[in-house]
Amino acid sequence: MGETILSLEPYTPTDGMSQPLTRADVEQLVQEVEEPARLDLSWQNMRGIDLSEFDLAGARLDRANLTAANLSEANLREASLVGACLCGANLVAVNLSEANLAEADLIGANCIIANFSSADLSKANLSRAMLLMSNLSGATMEKANLSGVYMSRANMSEAILCEANLSGAIMKDAHMSEIEKALLYNRGVIDLEKVRVIAEEQSKQETALIVNVEKQPAKKQIQK
Fold it and tell me: What pTM was computed for the model?
C-alpha cells in the first residue's frame, strides 16, 4: 500500500470569505500525517501566515497563496511550490534547495541569504525581489523574470539563466565564473563589471561547504 498524503479542499482564489490557515492549523496537519513530506497544502490560502523556522521539507504547496507570509529560516528543501504566490513574503534565510518553484510569483519578496541551490525557478517572477547574499548555485532560472532584482553578493555559479529577463538586475559582487559572466553581456544587467569572478575549483569548494551545512538537523517546528 502507498503512503497516505493529507490533502485539504483546494483554496478558491475568487472566494473572498475564505479564511487563511494559521500556523496552529499547519502544525496540527503535520502531526496528523506524521511528516512534512506527506502534507499537501496545494491551492490553500495561507496569506500572511507565520511559518518561520517551520519544517516543511518535501511538502506540496502548489498554487498556494503565501502572499506576505513569514517563511524566514523555514526548511522547504525539495518542497513543491509550482505557481505559488509569494509576493512580498519574508524568505530571509529560508532553505529552498532543490525545491520546485516553477512559475511561482515572488515579486518584491525578501530573500536575503536564502538558499535556492539547485532549485527550479523556471518562468518564476522575481521582479524587484531582494536576493542579497542568496545562494542560487545550480538553480534553473530559464525564462524567469529577474527585472529589477537585487542580487549583490549572490552565489550564481552554475545557475541557468537562458532567456531570463535581466533588465535592471543588480549583480554587484555576485559570484560566477568568467564564462557565466560573459553570457550576461548586453542583457541589461547593472554593475556586471563588478561581478566577482571565481575559479571553477573555488566554486566547487563553496558548493561542498553549503551541502555540509544543509545536512545538519533542521529545527523542529513543534515544541513538546
Answer: 0.82
